[in-house]
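Lecture notes, part 5. Sequence design as translation. It can be helpful to think of inverse folding as translation between two languages: the language of shapes and the language of residues. The source text, in structure tokens, appears below.
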């Protein structure tokens, strides 16, 4: 994998910049990501990202939610990436911190927020596409 000066990743037959801001929360938005759980969660998410080839650019763990800025190969569906991050982290954290098992029936809510992060605006893309026939 090679990254060019504009930040695009070049792979065989594919060039991309597929970046997302993702937020997810513990069940019932409980403030359980504290007292070492937050630190261990960061370590686990880095391990998962390394294992699956995700580029975890930035993260912040709050007591009741987590923010991720992540980039990954667009041939992998966003929901599959989130499922890996939430599923593996929940399993490991509940194994290492038994108090989570007694406080929550499952660690994460089923929902999440995701927003693509782009280097150009929606209007710029529309204008570029509209002007293609004029070339």
């Amino acid at each position: 994998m090679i990254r060019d000066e504009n930040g695009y990743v070049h792979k065989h037959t594919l060039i991309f910049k597929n970046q997302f801001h993702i937020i997810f929360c513990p069940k019932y938005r409980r403030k359980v990501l504290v007292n070492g759980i937050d630190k261990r969660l960061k370590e686990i998410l880095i391990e998962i990202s390394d294992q699956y080839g995700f580029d975890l650019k930035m993260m912040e763990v709050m007591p009741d939610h987590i923010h991720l800025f992540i980039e990954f190969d667009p041939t992998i569906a966003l929901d599959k990436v989130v499922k890996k991050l939430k599923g593996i982290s929940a399993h490991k954290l509940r194994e290492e911190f038994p108090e989570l098992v007694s406080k929550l029936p499952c660690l994460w809510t089923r929902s999440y927020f995701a927003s693509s992060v782009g280097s150009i605006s929606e209007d710029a893309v529309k204008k570029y596409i509209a002007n293609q026939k004029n070339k």
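The translated text above is only one of many valid answers, since several sequences can fold into similar shapes. The chain has a mean pLDDT of 94.
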